[in-house]
Amino acid sequence: EFRRVLFRSGDADVARLESAPAKALSSVESHGALRAHPKWVRVNLEDSSTAAEGPRYFRVLAASHPRVEGHLVAKGRILESVTAGYSVPKSLRRHHPTKLLLALPPEPGLRMAVYLRIETDYRNVLRPEVISEYELSFESDSELAIVCVYLGSILILLIFQGFLFLHLKDTAARDYSIGSIALVALALVHSGHFDLLFGDLLGGFLLGDWRLEIRIVNCLLGVLAISSFFDFREKHPPLHRACKGCMLILAGALLGTRSEE
């Protein structure tokens, strides 16, 4: 069980972190951290494992966060510090590309605290958990398999819809294909794999920084694809006008996200 506490502090320093004022959080997800105002979260834990169980890790999902720092503290000192997130350069990542991992010392009953410094622009899942090496391997393989199956299925649909559009000039197939490309971008944003693989090569461009815009674009293209597929323009003019209104609202929301910056 983890007791989650919010801290407002500077760089990682054991004395300052442990003496900083704190308040309990109902959930580690309710940290309310922004890039301009990162927050510290403390997770208290006690290792009840035995040496025979093998290595155990404190794991935080970091693929959809710009930056998450983790500091494992025990016996009044920092045992390990790790930085993860899609905006972190490859040279600074450790252990795993999409997760923040802290190896727990094999000392049963040892009281520890993990301090997380979180930067984000949106509410993203952290889901901290203590897992074994086998569980970590199974989780990582499963996540990668799901992403590959999802992207592969969309690629097959793109090929099929592209064939229909090129040979039949079907506008519904065209709009569905464009929507499918947007779904690929959304999947890459949530998995973090695009930025982790290519973030260092694109001169500072990070797909994760466009998370909100990509979600809105997916909604807009989804309305367009539905309207084209059911041919609302010819068969249901009122629904066609309603779809156009929804698309105008979504386009306004999209422009609003850029103007806020």
Descriptive account of the structure:
It is built from seven helices and nine strands. The strands form two sheets. Strands 2-1-3-8-5-6 form a six-stranded antiparallel sheet, with no helix packed on it. The protein is elongated, with a radius of gyration of 23 Å. The protein has helices at 14-19, 133-168, 171-191, 193-198, 211-229, 232-235, 237-259, and strands at residues 3-7, 23-24, 39-46, 56-61, 67-74, 77-84, 99-104, 111-119, 129-132. With 261 residues, the protein is of the alpha+beta class. Residues 1-10 have low confidence and may be disordered.
The separation of the N and C termini measures 39 Å
- Supply Rg: 23 Å
Following the backbone from N to C, one meets helices and strands in this order, namely EHEEEEEEEEHHHHHH
Spans of 5+ residues with little confidence (pLDDT < 50)?
Answer: 1-10
Short description:
By secondary structure, this protein is of the alpha+beta class. 44% of the residues lie in helices and 21% in strands. The strands form 2 sheets. A 6-stranded antiparallel sheet has the order 2-1-3-8-5-6, with no helix packed on it.
